[in-house]
Every structure is written in C-alpha cells, then in structure tokens.
Amino acid sequence: MRFALWLMALFCMAVASALFAGNNQGTVTLYWPPYRVDMSLNLVLLALALAFITLHLALRGISGLFSIPQQARRWRLSYKERTIYSGLLDTISHLVAGRFVRARKAAEVVVAVEDAMLSSGDALPDAARLRTLAHLLAAESAHALQDRGTRETHFQRALQEAGSKDASDLRDGVQLRAARWALEDRDSTGAVQWLEQLPVGTARRTIALRLRFKAARQARNTRVALDAARVLTKHRAFSEVAGTGIVRGLALELLRGAHDAAQLEQAWAALDSPERLLPDVALEAAERLLVLDGDVATARLWVLPLWQGQNPQAPAMSYEQRVRLVRVLERSFMSEETQPDGVWLSRIETAQMAQPGDPLLQYLAGVLCVRLSLWGKAQALLRQAIPMLKDADMKRRAWLAMAELAEHRLDTKGAAEAYKAAAKA
Hints:
Layout: H1 2-22, E1 27-32, E2 35-40, H2 41-66, H3 68-97, H4 100-119, H5 127-144, H6 148-162, H7 171-184, H8 188-196, H9 200-203, H10 206-218, H11 222-234, H12 240-256, H13 261-269, H14 273-276, H15 279-291, H16 296-308, H17 319-333, H18 342-354, H19 359-371, H20 375-385, H21 392-408, H22 412-424
Antiparallel strand pairs: 1-2
Helix pairs in contact: 3-4, 3-5, 4-5, 5-6, 6-7, 7-8, 7-10, 8-10, 10-11, 11-12, 12-15, 15-16, 15-17, 16-17, 17-19, 18-19, 19-20, 20-21, 21-22
C-alpha cells in the first residue's frame, strides 16, 4: 500500500512538472556589460536545483571527512563496551559452571578494560556499577578458590566503587555477600557486623534474615536465632511445618541453656504465647524448673494449658507427651514444699471420671490420693491402672506406691509382693 501511494505521488509530480515546464515561456536575462545572456526559466530552475544538490553533497562530504575521528572514537568505545559485556557474561557463565579460575580471569579482564577506559576519559554511563559487579564477581571466584587475599583485594575495590553515587544501589548486595563469606569462613562475629551495617529496610529482607539466623546459630546465640526464625516463618521463608519445628527446637535449646530457676523463668518470658502452648516446650520448661528446684506452682501453671487443651490449632498430644505431662504433675505433687490444692484435685477427678478407662489419669489420680492420704481410693485407682500402663517406669512407681500403701496397712506380705512386682517392672 505504501509503495502504491509513493508511485501515485511520483506520477503526480511528473505530470505537474511536465505541465509547468511544457507551457512555461518565461525567460531570464543576465546583463554583464557589454554582454547579455538570455536563458529560459526552466534551464535556470534546473541549474539552481543541480547547484543545490551539488552544494548539499559537498557539505555532507566535508562533514563526513571531519567526523571520521569522532566515528573512530565511538567505534573504539563501542568495541570496548562489547568487550566488557561479553566479559561479564563469560564471568557469570564460568562462575555458574564451577570454572572459578576462568571466571576470575574474565572478571579481571573486564576490570582492566574498564580501568583503561576510565584513564582515557571514555567512561561508560554505568561505569561504576560495571566495575562494582566485575570486582564482586572476581571476589566471589577467589572465595570459591579459597584465595582470601585476592578476594579481599577485589572486595575492597567493589566496596569502594559501591560507595559512589552511581553504584549506591549495589552497596547492600556487596555487604550481604561479605556477610555470607564471613559465615562460610566460620566468622559469625564478622557476619553480624556486616549485617548490622545494613539499612533498616535491607535488614528486613529474607536473605538478610536468613544470614542473621545462620550467624546466630553459628555463634550459639539462641535468642537472636529464635527472633530471626519467627520473622522468617512469618514471611513464609520456611514452610509452616518446618518453621514450627525450627522454632520449637530453638525454644527447647533456649530452655535447656538455663542453669538456674531465674534464668529459666527469663527464657520462658522470652517465648511468645504460641510457643508456650507447644507441648514439648511447656513440658521441657516444667521439667527443667523442677530439676532446678524452682517453684512447683509455677511448673504446674506452665503445663496447665496442655491439661486444659488451650491450643486448638496444635495436634493432640501423643502418648509419650501425655506420659511426660503426668510425670511432671506427679513430681510436683510429691514435692514436700507444697501441698496439692483442691483445684487440681477437682481437675484430675473430673478428667478421670470423664475417661474412666484412661490408665494415665487413673495413675495420676491414685498418686494424688496417696499424697493426700486417701489410702483406700488410691489403692483402688492404682490397682485398676497398673495392668493397662505401657510405660515401664510408671508401672514400677505404681507398684512402689502400692507397696507404700500396704506398709501403711501393716500388710507385710502385700508390701513384699508389690516390691517384687516393682523389681520385675
């Protein structure tokens, strides 16, 4: 369609020129004493057109002649630019493929070409960013080769280039890379120092939080690792199951690191409410508190949500967890410092009556009755629970309780049989 329009326009111009030139009787006379020159108007117009075309071509030729140095300079600049980009591609390709020596050499070629361009005044618009990336890739290759001297040299150059205004957006990446290198060198202190220098927004990114989590784990700083794991789980950097497992493991480690009751209570206060409702965490805290001779009432309070089932989102406690819960309560009831209150007696009796066939509840109720000197009721509950108990240690303690009850009744034979059964268990 465009060709047809151009062809029609050409025909129109030809017809208009023929009509104008064919009937044009005009004459142009030039006087140059003592001469006189008469020319037709058509010839004059044609001569003017030829002169204009000749002058235009001559000017273009002269302009092209004088622009040859600039064109040569642009060609050299374009050639060096292509060399730089090709070198960066080669560096990344070799680095991904594991050819670290070739990657470092390609990055050093890029740095050399860029330095030569900078010294000659032919710097590219993104020269600072290109130099930063080239030095960073060279440092990464040297790090993979365990060449720390070369790595530090290129890293310092990259950090210096990233400090300029044109490459300020790369400074965070350079610092994050330095933190990762420090972690791989088992230098958790250095990694934390680099992470502390990050801006607030960058420090909240997932990659920064992952590095902080790894640094805290490497430094055995459980509290910082727990905070980082919470944020990572919230940002869905971990799956729900994995995040819960990591948080549970760190909470247990935090509790086990306490060496006295005061430290344990501080560690418990540092946990969030959902973490305190985790069965393993609450049971570990209560067990540790009892081992450290802490407040028995506090231990019961920590496991009270597990007894009442206040975490509907968590799965039901396993048999082993229920056994641990019963042991914690049993140990708290057997303490000579505090007497079991009527509230707990009511709770246990209500649960035992609601599930009369549960041996763990029968055992716990029997133990509590022994503590409260309710000998007859204790004997009946323990006798019903012993055949159904699966835990050997719990069954042994049940027989010992039966032997104690027999001794209170002055039943020597019954006590001996109970001790014998406890020994077999």
